Amino acid sequence: MEEKACLECGVTIYGRSDKKFCSDNCRNMYNYRQNRTEINLVRQINQTLKRNRNILKDLNPKGKGKVHRYDLLQRGFNFNYFTNEYRTRKGTLYRFVYDQGYLQLDEEYFYLVERQEYVD
Ligand SMILES: [Zn+2]
Questions:
Q1: How far apart are CA 39 and CA 109, in angstroms?
Q2: Ligand 1 centroid from CA 5, angstroms
Q3: H or E stretch covering 43
Q4: Which of 3, 37, 49, 101 is such that its CA lies 20 to 30 A from the CA of 55?
């Protein structure tokens, strides 16, 4: 007979080889924790995106304009999180956080734009 450890509590399980938990209780607990971890991860990413969008919007009251990298970083902008990219025919790459976009001009400056309609 095969012996395995319960994924939740580590107790040895005997019997069917596809069994992963010693009890329904342990299975429920394990699944609950897995879900909670996923929900927290999604929540964190959503919060980061929301903050990024607010920062871009605050810095761009006219719908377009130039900002220094420092202004973004100082407000806590996270360059790793954006919702989509848009490359123009000329090859210019814009990154968007929802409707708020930015284009890196050089090492210091960014150009901010606002988009009205949705782009794939
Ligand atoms: Zn268990």
A1: 35
A2: 8
A3: helix 24-59
A4: 37
- 83 within 8 A of 49, measured Cβ to Cβ: yes
User: Residues with Cβ within 5 Å of ion ligand 1?
Assistant: 6, 8-9, 11, 22, 26
SS3 4: strand
pTM recorded for the entire structure: 0.78
Give the distance, in angstroms, between the CA of residue 91 and the centroid of all CA atoms in the same chain. Answer: 26
Q: Summarize pLDDT for 56-85 with one digit per residue, the tens.
A: 999 999 999 999 999 999 999 999 999 999
To which residue do tokens 């990298």 refer? Answer: 69
Q: Give CA 6 to chain center in angstroms.
A: 32
Residue 46: CB atoms within 10 A of its CB come to 11
102 exposed, middle or buried (CB, 10 Å; 0-12, 13-18, 19+)? buried
Distance 40 CA to ligand 1 centre (A): 24
Q: Which helix (H) or strand (E) holds 25?
A: helix 24-59
